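In the design runs reported in the main text, the only information available to the sequence generator was the tokenized backbone. The following block is the verbatim input for one such run; it is reproduced so that readers can re-run the procedure and compare outputs position by position.
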């Protein structure tokens, strides 16, 4: 599968056409479009946003999106949207086992559950964190989410994202992005899939500033892949599942909605391999703040304080001298919702499994479990490579509200807080 290489949606504008001559030349909307297509502008930011932040894509399609039936409310399942105060927010740290993949046939929409939300969708602040499983394709079913842009973090199994701009194939170790308001399908490629999904209500995700790191650290523009234009032309019935203002609606269609023959712009889907992230680290002493592992950020109105930071802990070297190597005990102003794609996280030796979730809200104390603390306190301090590991955080300035489903789930670990009980008194000062 070919793909364009560029930093999608960060000022760079690109074009793609599935048929020669489908893109108009010299202007975006001539009186008559080439090949009898309809021009449809997908405006992702306000018209007057600064040039460097302005995002939009012109879609040249067989039928315009206005050609649809009336929206009918449908069952919500376990999908929730902020604000969703279904239960009190506990000050305890929380952790969940991996979400089992049901045996019954189910597609991506049916397998979507919300574990926590924060902020306010209508005010465009905060986010929702969902878990997903699927063991069948969506067939003639499509999804459009107006409430937030979607960041996919697959944990098990590869899938195909068919979008209005083209197709992306995504596997564990990669992430994928679909702009809010864009139609798509998710199709498992080889058996069941499972993963994490952030629905960002806030400012569009972008690369963080590098500061003193310089010009080449962290994620680099050249490694983001956007799809090439691809389209389906048929007049068979289809269903659009539309998430709008926190509710799910079923919208009948009389044609295939992924019928964009060409596009030009910078508000498009993309994927990125986390193996290409150039991690920075200490080469002197002390464990560094996780901000140096930020792949993407959604800024808030307060400079330097994120609506959402997507942070990863990839394979890397630890070389700090005279230092406690794992994360120290800490209480943060930011709330941390963490997932594990593969391997083992260095502050947890048991109980945090690939596909699992942990949640430490603002100023909730956490850190290495007792056995990890003991081992790290006595380890020989030589260079160590963290090899089989890939963990991540959805870090936010807003307090995460677990859903009623999450708090009642049998995957919630009732004894998580006990992992610190073995921390003995060590004070020897009298």
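Verbatim output:
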């Amino acid at each position: 599968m070919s793909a364009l290489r560029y930093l999608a949606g960060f000022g760079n504008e690109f074009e793609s056409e599935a048929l020669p001559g489908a893109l108009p030349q010299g202007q975006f909307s001539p009186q008559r479009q080439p090949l009898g297509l309809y021009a449809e502008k997908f405006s992702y930011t306000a018209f007057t946003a600064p040039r460097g932040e302005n995002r939009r894509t012109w879609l040249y399609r067989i039928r315009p999106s206005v050609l649809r039936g009336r929206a009918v409310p449908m069952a919500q399942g376990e999908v929730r949207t902020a604000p969703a105060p279904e239960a009190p927010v506990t000050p305890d740290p929380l952790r969940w086992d991996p979400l089992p993949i049901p045996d019954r046939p189910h597609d991506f929409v049916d397998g979507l559950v919300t574990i926590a939300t924060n902020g306010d969708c209508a005010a465009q602040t905060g986010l929702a964190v969902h878990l997903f499983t699927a063991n069948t394709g969506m067939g003639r079913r499509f999804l459009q989410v107006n409430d937030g842009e979607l960041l996919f973090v697959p944990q098990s199994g590869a899938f195909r994202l068919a979008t209005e701009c083209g197709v992306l194939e995504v596997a564990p170790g990669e992430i994928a992005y679909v702009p809010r308001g864009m139609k798509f399908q998710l199709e498992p490629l080889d058996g069941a899939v499972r993963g994490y999904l952030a629905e960002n209500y806030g400012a569009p995700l972008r690369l963080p500033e590098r500061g003193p790191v310089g010009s080449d650290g962290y994620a680099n523009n050249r490694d983001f892949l956007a799809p090439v234009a691809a389209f389906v032309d048929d007049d068979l019935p289809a269903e659009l599942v539309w998430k709008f203002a926190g509710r799910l609606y079923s919208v009948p269609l009389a044609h295939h909605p992924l019928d964009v023959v060409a596009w030009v712009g910078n508000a498009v889907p993309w994927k990125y391999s986390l193996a290409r992230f150039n991690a920075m680290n200490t080469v002197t002493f002390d464990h560094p703040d996780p901000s140096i592992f930020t792949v993407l950020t959604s800024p808030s109105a307060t400079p330097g304080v994120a609506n959402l930071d997507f942070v990863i802990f990839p394979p890397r070297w630890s070389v700090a001298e005279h230092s406690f190597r794992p994360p120290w005990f800490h209480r943060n102003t930011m709330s941390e919702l963490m997932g594990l794609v593969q391997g083992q996280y260095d502050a947890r030796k048991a109980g945090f499994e690939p596909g699992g979730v942990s949640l430490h809200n603002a100023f909730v104390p956490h850190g290495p479990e007792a056995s990890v603390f003991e081992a790290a306190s006595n380890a020989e301090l030589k260079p160590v490579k963290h090899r089989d590991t890939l963990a991540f955080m959805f870090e936010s300035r807003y307090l995460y509200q677990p859903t009623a489903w999450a708090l009642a789930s049998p995957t919630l670990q009732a004894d998580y807080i006990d992992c610190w009980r073995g921390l003995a008194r060590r004070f020897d000062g009298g």
